[in-house]
Write a structure and sequence with these properties.
The chain is mainly α and 198 residues long. 65% of the residues lie in helices and 0% in strands.
């Protein structure tokens, strides 16, 4: 289930209605492979983007994207709505894979590449405009200076386009804690950004 280059470069599609996502998840939970395929098509670019910005390695990001969806497919029967967005659930799986990766000794052999997937269209606001104005390499370099939780927060919020509440669910934090983490991360990130030329 390795993601295709075309799927990874595809623009993030506007969210289908929540009721359509819910119906697809329910069908996938009952074993419908086509429904899971539709969920994969909808979320693969966003999950890959999150993973790439966290590991800064295109091959590793593709492998972790595949593993994320493999684990989701294997455990989709255990997914329960209870206020949790399906995209946030997938991001939690991806985040756990990143954590496991960095705990392993393999992570020490990474090489940062300057080739990045297309960015998600960040939402409005000064933070999103600042992030979108950077080159991909500048952004990766600046993000790597942050702690893992701050990296997760900024990538989920501004590159993946998750809401505060979805980010909070994916990170296992309260919305207030995510807002504070985001504020601290942005302040720290600005210290590592290149100076603007006059």
């Amino acid at each position: 289930m390795r993601p295709s280059r075309e799927a990874l470069r595809a623009p993030v599609l506007p969210d289908p209605s929540p009721s359509r996502i819910e119906a697809l998840v329910d069908l996938a939970r009952s074993g419908d492979g086509e429904a899971f395929g539709a969920l994969y098509d909808h979320y693969v670019a966003a999950i890959h983007r999150y993973l790439y910005y966290r590991v800064a390695n295109p091959v590793l990001a593709e492998d972790l994207t595949s593993e994320t969806f493999f684990r989701a497919l294997r455990s989709i029967e255990s997914f329960h709505w209870q206020g949790k967005d399906f995209g946030a659930w997938l991001t939690t799986i991806a985040r756990n894979l990143v954590t496991d990766h960095f705990k392993s000794s393999r992570s020490r052999r990474e090489v940062v590449s300057d080739v990045l997937p297309e960015q998600a269209h960040p939402g409005p606001g000064p933070e999103a405009r600042a992030l979108s104005a950077l080159t991909s390499q500048q952004l990766v370099t600046a993000l790597r200076q942050l702690g893992p939780k701050q990296q997760d927060c900024l990538v989920m919020r501004f590159l993946q386009g998750l809401s505060i509440s979805d980010t909070a669910r994916a990170m296992g934090r309260t919305e207030g804690a995510v807002k504070q983490l985001q504020l601290r991360a942005i302040r720290t990130l600005t210290k590592h950004l290149p100076e603007e030329s006059p």
